[in-house]
Design brief:
The chain is built from 21 helices and 25 strands. By secondary structure, it is of the alpha/beta class. The strands form five sheets. The chain has an eight-stranded parallel beta barrel with strand order 7-8-10-12-13-14-15-16. Strand 13 (about 350-355), helix 9 (about 360-370) and strand 14 form a beta-alpha-beta unit. The chain is globular and about 85 Å long.
């Protein structure tokens, strides 16, 4: 029931402050909760906003579900009730604990006190979105509480502000078969958007035209060029055949509903238009065709259609556009984009232009900025995959730009001089730019299995604003499900065991992951209680163990991607259902084309070749007796072994402690964790096998060859065991594309693994001890065959099969907050280690992926090492990044800052602030 009484805003605040006389500690009891009164001042524009009103309803719904009565009022009544004051005040409300003024509209404050003789909670923020977050926090506490007080007796104030300005989730329509069922379901959207808002994502991006990379060979083309699927544009006779007028109207009505519901929750609504082609090449089996357009009318129609879209959906606050050749518009067609941008410039409101970074150049940026609208360039984070939570220190050699390179055709820019824009931030972080940079986490490494590691998510939360970037967009799990006409009915999660299928609400499987990622993108140092309370509701006493099991398993594939990336393309490399890269060169065709030659397991480059070594690099180093500065494949294998062991132990505890293990939620959790454990065991053993086989070939060591085969057989057993269990859970064809590499299941991959193992066995049988120097390929700096003694080969085998350990060196370094362009940047490292001090190198680079790293020796004086980045190098438009490499007297090496135990820190320093 809502009170009809009201008081002026000044009197409202005076009443509240006069009544707030008790401290939090005095009223932190856990007494049963009586009635709750939610008080808002009608004159408070923030507290009375539509998003705040929606959040109040969510809070009241949570209370009602726990049997607690609530009412909305405009003034506090006191008595035997809890009063929740909702205020748009950005500073103190007298009587409640003092606080600093809040500047960010997404900041929030929850403070306990007393009002009119009753316990009270003040929910305050200078913006509607902050109030939404505060109220939904209370709703979540109520929902997950097992206490009679429902957790609403706060012990102390809570104050939070966002670390990243933009925290987005993208969902794509890729399959008419699989996606229409949720697209038209309004209850799906209500629940899904509720979850996103509660997770503190502040933007939702609905993407069209994501179903294909190129307008060639299309079948399932629904919404590929979205405009004619939504409306009839006056002045043009453009239509989709076959598509009824009724279905077209339904499509627009649904999009308008999604836009309105997104805005009602205080989130920004973004539309992604990834394809502007209207004709399909070599596509005789396309489900539809677009009639009525010609090359002469295409640009004008697209402009007018976009203008109509913006008018029809006034909640659209931004557009994501693919502007390189995959859009269907040949690169260099600047006239088309200039015409299209006229619709944005003339729409009468602020609409952000977000251009995908691949192939971006200054001409396209200038066209966008001339509209007067805010402009973002979205760079890929970890290529088209999910790697460790830091911006890769370097790009692969395949992506390094080559001066003077020219390419003709539709990809003349992105495959030519701007090729290094394909998989990273390129040279975008230049001082004085007139656009924002942000990151897009592509749906490669983790796309189908449940994953959520708070340590990794927090790492992304800390680096999503790298060099003052504006945040991160996550292409959600299942993004490419049913892509390229591969859609099948029966549930996007592809369970063969239908008791596990969440139905149309597929997001429910990943709800915990959304919570972890959204909250840690908002605030990387969030209290773990945020996700642990959700786990307790699900699993009771098994909550902590279940979370630990999934967290450790979730570290497996991001590590593999960062350390060993056979393809930057998410359409080729799918480590969840890995297409086997042969160790034995020539045993079978490599399934990956964008990888170093000769194409075999040993030559695969890391995503980050500055900090990780390939198998051939590492084998050269240990056979030559040189310490590796980079993290080796053997270290990666050890990390994988440690993570999988920890996950397995925790999963066993979760199974014994959880309140139920027979329900679908625990079973989904357990099965996906077990699959990732199996993947970790496979990759760990195969990495060791790859190094041993390289030692066998280069050193002529029969022992290394035998051990390589044994490790590969161990990897195969881990895969086979995992695949047998997974086969009882998932369908035999998990569809993410049209070719076998993008579909199938784990059992289907065993054949190629067996072929390679048989080839290795045959090589060892025919040539037990090959002459030295016959490795897969020399590393990039190798000068031919490595001359190896028997003792050195034995030591290399020991290093490969043992447990690697870097020296435990205590170092201290205070990174400067800023630098002055044109002046040397002096840096000092203090090394605290008894015995002989190491030699130290300073490695540095501009934050520009077109450039390579440089190094300089540091001068040592006792424990202090001093060096500098030269003045001529700091005189640049780019920020600076650097780290230290230490070579020790015992022949070992280490890096600083080194990775932490969960691989969730940035392994270098970055300075982007400048001093005039």
């Amino acid at each position: 029931m809502t009170s009809s009484s009201s008081v002026p805003r000044r009197e409202f605040l005076k009443l509240a402050s006069a009544a707030a006389v008790a401290t939090a500690a005095e009223h932190a009891s856990a007494a049963p909760l009586g009635k709750v009164q939610i008080v808002t001042d009608p004159a408070d524009a923030v507290a009375s906003s539509a998003p705040a009103a929606w959040a109040i309803k969510q809070f009241r719904r949570a209370l009602s579900a726990k049997g607690v009565d609530s009412e909305s009022a405009s003034s506090p009544a006191g008595g035997n009730r809890l009063v929740v004051l909702v205020s748009g005040q950005a500073s103190d409300v007298k009587g409640f604990p003092a606080a600093h003024p809040m500047q960010d509209s997404e900041s929030l404050r929850l403070a306990p006190g007393r009002v009119a003789g009753a316990d009270a909670i003040l929910v305050s923020s200078p913006g509607p979105r902050g109030l939404v977050y505060g109220l939904l926090e209370l709703a979540d506490i109520v929902d997950t509480s097992a206490d009679s007080s429902l957790g609403l007796h706060l012990a102390e104030p809570v104050e939070e502000s966002p670390a990243n300005p933009t925290r987005s989730v993208a969902r794509a329509f890729c399959s008419e078969v699989e996606d229409k069922v949720w697209f038209y379901d309004k209850n799906f959207w209500r629940g899904y958007l509720d979850m996103l808002a509660a997770s503190r994502f502040n933007r939702f991006n609905f993407a069209f035209g994501f179903g294909y990379d190129f307008p060639r060979g299309l079948t399932d083309d629904y919404f590929q060029y979205p405009y004619p699927y939504l409306f009839d544009v006056p002045g043009y006779d453009v239509r989709v055949v076959p598509l009824s007028n009724a279905e077209r109207a339904r499509n627009l009505e649904t999009l308008q509903f999604i836009a309105a519901e997104t805005a009602a929750r205080g989130m920004e609504f973004q539309v992604g238009i990834w394809t502007h082609a209207y004709q399909w090449t070599d596509s005789p089996h396309a489900y539809h065709r677009i009639e009525g357009l010609t090359p002469e009318t295409h640009a004008a129609y697209s402009r007018d259609a976009l203008a109509l879209l913006l008018k029809s959906c006034p909640q659209i606050q931004g557009l994501t556009l693919r502007v390189h050749g995959e859009s269907g518009i040949p690169e260099g067609s600047y006239g088309f984009w200039q015409t299209l941008f006229e619709a944005i410039a003339g729409c009468g409101r602020k609409v952000e232009i977000d251009m995908h970074a691949k192939g971006i150049n200054q001409t396209m940026i200038d066209l966008a900025t001339k509209t007067g609208m805010p402009v973002k360039v979205g760079a890929k984070y970890s290529a088209e995959h999910m790697g460790l939570g830091y911006q890769q220190a370097d790009i692969r050699a395949l992506e390094i730009p080559r001066p003077g390179r020219t390419v003709s055709g539709p990809f003349s820019v992105s495959s030519g001089a701007r090729s290094f824009t394909r998989y990273g931030y390129a040279d975008l972080f230049q001082e004085g730019r007139k656009f924002d940079v942000w990151f897009r986490l592509w749906p490669g490494t983790q796309r189908h299995l449940l994953w959520a590691d708070p340590e990794t998510a927090a790492a992304y939360g800390r680096t999503a604003h790298f060099c003052n970037a504006s945040g991160l967009e996550i292409c959600e799990p299942l993004t490419f499900k049913g892509r390229e006409g591969s859609g099948v009915s029966g549930g996007r999660c592809a369970y063969s065991d239908k008791t596990l299928e969440p139905g149309v609400n597929d997001w429910r499987k990943f709800e915990y992951g959304y919570r972890v990622w959204g909250r840690l993108l908002y605030r990387p140092d969030s209290d773990p209680e945020v996700w642990q309370r959700a786990l307790r509701k699900r699993f009771g006493n098994g909550a902590a163990a279940a979370g630990e099991a999934l967290a450790n398993a979730g570290r497996v594939l991001p590590l593999v991607t960062t350390a060993h990336l056979p393809s930057a393309s998410n359409h080729s490399f799918w480590p969840e259902i890995y297409a086997n890269m042969p160790i034995v060169l020539g045993s079978e065709r490599s399934p990956y084309s964008d990888t170093p030659t000769p194409r075999c397991f040993g030559t695969v480059s890391p995503l980050d070749p500055q900090l990780f070594s390939s198998i051939v690099e590492y084998a050269d180093e240990i056979l030559s007796g040189q310490p590796s500065l980079k993290y080796s494949p053997v270290e990666v294998a050890q990390w994988l072994e440690d993570f999988t062991a920890a996950s397995g132990t925790a999963l066993k505890s979760a199974r014994s402690e959880a309140k139920s293990t027979i329900g679908p939620e625990f079973r989904r959790w357990e099965e996906d964790t077990r699959i990732q454990i199996g993947l970790g065991e496979f990759f760990a053993a195969k990495l060791r096998s790859g190094v041993l086989f390289e030692i066998y070939q280069k050193a002529g060591s029969a022992d290394a060859g035998r051990r390589a085969l044994a490790k590969y057989s161990e990897a195969r057993q881990a895969w086979a065991s995992m695949a047998r269990r997974a086969g009882s859970v998932y369908r035999s064809d998990i569809t993410y594309g049209s070719i076998p590499q993008r579909r199938g299941d784990w059992t289907a991959r065993l054949t190629d693994i067996d072929i390679d193992i048989d080839a290795m066995r045959a090589v060892l049988h025919s040539q037990p001890s090959p002459p030295a120097g016959g490795g897969a390929s020399p590393s990039s700096d190798s000068k031919g065959a490595v001359e190896v003694t028997n003792s050195r080969a034995a030591e290399a085998i020991r290093l490969t099969t043992g447990k690697p350990a870097r020296p435990n060196v205590g170092c201290r370094h205070d990174s400067p907050a800023e630098f002055t362009p044109g002046k040397p940047l002096a840096l000092e490292l203090t090394v605290e280690r008894p015995g002989k001090a190491p030699t130290v190198e300073l490695w540095y680079r501009h934050v520009n992926q077109a450039e390579r790293w440089r190094s300089a020796a540091m001068e040592r004086s006792g424990q202090r090492c001093k060096g500098a980045i030269p003045a001529d190098y700091t005189d640049s438009a780019f920020p600076l990044q650097y780290y230290f490499a230490l070579r020790h007297g015992d022949g070992s090496a280490s890096l600083f800052p080194a990775f932490n135990a969960t691989l969730s820190n940035q392994p270098y320093y970055v300075i982007w602030r400048r001093q005039a």
